[in-house]
Amino acid sequence: MRKQYTAEQREKLVAEVRATGERVSVVAKRMGVASSSAYLWMKTGAKAAGPSVPVFARVVPARVATVRVQVGCAAVVVEAGFDAPLLRQVVAALSGAP
Q1: 91 and 70 share a domain?
Q2: pLDDT digits over 7-48, tens only?
Q3: CA separation (Å) from 58 to 9, 66, 75, 76?
Q4: DSSP readout, the chain?
Q5: I need a labelling partner for 20 at 20 to 30 A (CA). Which of 27, 35, 38, 89 fits?
Q6: Is there a single domain that holds both residue 65 and residue 40?
């Protein structure tokens, strides 16, 4: 019988690989997950578990000089006077949105 993994387990593996930069097979072995499953989760971004980042973002100019935007394990520093459409594209690319 195939082992079933929870959404949290899938998300944890994907997040750990992205945060540490370790090989997928190493993290999978440490977590007791088959490498093939781990590679599939990485490829799909653990989508079967549901989105782990917002699917939309409302971008408005900030009143402070800089703002740090965290998308997954990536951070973007936004300066005053930023280009809102460009920031939307960057956030969408980082979050895997189409």
Answers
A1: yes
A2: 888 889 988 888 888 899 999 999 999 999 998 888 887 555
A3: 30, 17, 17, 15
A4: -PPP--HHHHHHHHHHHHHH---HHHHHHHHT--HHHHHHHHHHTTGGG--SS-S-------SSSEEEEEETTEEEEEETT--HHHHHHHHHHHHT--
A5: 89
A6: no
